[in-house]
Amino acid sequence: MKIAIATEGSTVAPHFGRCPEYTLYNVKDGSVIDKTVIPNPGHEPGFLPEYLSNLGVSCIIAGGMGMRAQNLFAGKNIQTVVGATGLVDDVAEAFASGTLKGGESLCEHGQSERPGNHNCGHHEGHDHGHECEDK
Q: Distance from CA of residue 12 to its chain's centroid?
């Protein structure tokens, strides 16, 4: 299974679409097999779900993501986990071992979201138990 983690430096980025890069991990039998870092090719509505799907990604992990983006990923059969924080490698290991739990999105988008006009706030401490299934 291939996962993608929205990355900013060595930590999980608070917003999946506006992160500088993605760290891709191959996960098998509870272990991370390898990783590759790729630059974010750009944030345009609908582009990233198609792009990451073409790379074979089955799950994307980020600090935050709007509901529209989550629905677009679901349309590509890519699961999403939001509310992730911390070091990217630690999050990947937690996912591989089955202990990663998502939470509330760190980036809440309103109904009238316009490009460049979103409210990203940190709402840690909420755990809704959303997990990707290892396939």
A: 8
Q: Which pTM value belongs to this model?
A: 0.80
pLDDT, one tens digit per residue, over 54-68 is: 999 999 999 999 999
- DSSP, res 130: -
| Nearest to 6, CA basis, from 53, 60, 77, 80 | 60
User: Which residues lie across from 24 on neighbouring strands?
Assistant: 4, 36
CA–CA distance, 56 with 46 (Å, rounded to integer): 16
Token pair of 86 as six digits: 């911390």
d(CA 9, CA 119): 21
E runs forming strands in the chain: 2-8, 11-12, 21-28, 31-39, 57-61, 79-81, 107-108, 119-120
Region class of 53: left (phi > 0), else alpha (psi between -120 and 50), else beta: alpha
Per domain, the residue ranges of the chain are: 2-120
Domain 2-120 indexed as CATH 3.30.420.130: yes
